Amino acid sequence: MKPVPQATSLRRAPVQRRSAERLTRILDACADLLDEVGYDTLSTRAVALRAGVPIGSVYRFFGNKRQMVDALAQRNLERFTARVTDRLAESGDEGGWRMVMDVVLDEYLAMKRTAPGFSLVDFGNQIPVGARHSEPNHRVADRLTELLSGYLSREPDDDLRRTFLIAVETADTLVHLAFRMAPEGDERIIQEAREMLRAYLARVLD
Q1: If DSSP states are collapsed to H, E and C, what string results for 81-143?
Q2: Which DSSP state fits 7?
């Protein structure tokens, strides 16, 4: 079964498989509609209709559309973490932190290009559209610190977390710029972002 958001992002956590599958359909419908109509026009009723569930099922999990979109952002982070973990397992230990950085950035770019609704929501830092709250990037930095410290043979301490936070904030800004310049991301800007991250991380991690 695909990852569902952590219970803290829901009014009520799914207990049975049927309930979890219904939640997945709701979030899938939310993601598709975000691409089609945007956040302002999104409604819980439209999501229920697209998901093929009663409106009461939506309100069982979410009090409003903002909570639903927040849960979608959390699911995006869970899926991103799973994708990075799988890629690193396939890659083994070769390449050190440079390989790890490429995997993290490549998987983020892949989701940016292919995951429904991701261009508006990603990990939560663009809803409402144009908002630039810092909290989701802190969440991503925490997750990367937890996930990658073992690959880097580093303690998951405040210094490593700060390093990842700076890298995440930098990548976030430059990747968003790349996708404002071109629908699939301006490759020249993405390459500049990759080089900047390598230079910074080399100073800190080598």
Answers
A1: HHHHHHHHHHHCCCCHHHHHHHHHHHHHHHHHHHCCCHHHHCCCCCCCCCCCCCHHHHHHHHH
A2: G
Q: For residue 4, what pLDDT is reported?
A: 45
In angstroms, how far is CA 99 from the centroid of its own chain? 20
Distance, in Å, from the CA atom of 74 to the CA atom of 164, rounded to the nearest integer, reads 19
Tokens encoding 74: 């959390």
Cα–Cα distance, 110 to 105 (Å, whole number): 9
Amino acid at 59: Y
Q: Give the C-alpha separation, 31 to 187, whole Å.
A: 26
Model confidence, pTM: 0.85
pLDDT at 7: 45
**Segments of the chain scoring below 70 in pLDDT:** 1-9, 11-15, 93, 125-134
Amino acid at site 134: S
